[in-house]
Write a structure and sequence with these properties.
The protein is built from three helices and four strands, in the order ααββββα. By secondary structure, the protein is α+β, with helices and mostly antiparallel strands. The N and C termini lie far apart (about 40 Å).
């Protein structure tokens, strides 16, 4: 069963992590201030996975629905002239 953003947000952290692992679709990666940030799509919303670069461990799952949070990833897309 796919969860909505609000249903996901209301889960405990361990429940979020389990759902995230089972239902994620990888989209992109970026780097910022000591973190590797992976972007995933979970059916009706996006979720960032923040990994600490020095300790190589998950520090944060950050779900969102808006497109403003996708702006850092647009810099990573390069389309050839058509």
């Amino acid at each position: 069963m796919r969860l909505s953003f609000l249903q996901f947000r209301d889960l405990s952290y361990s429940e979020q992590a389990a759902y995230f692992s089972a239902h994620r679709t990888y989209l992109a990666r970026r780097y910022t201030a000591g973190f590797t940030v992976h972007l995933y799509y979970l059916g009706s919303f996006f979720c960032e996975e923040w990994i600490c670069q020095t300790q190589n461990e998950l520090r944060l799952l950050r779900p969102f629905t808006g497109t403003e949070q996708l702006l850092p990833y647009t810099e990573l897309v390069h389309l050839p002239s058509l």
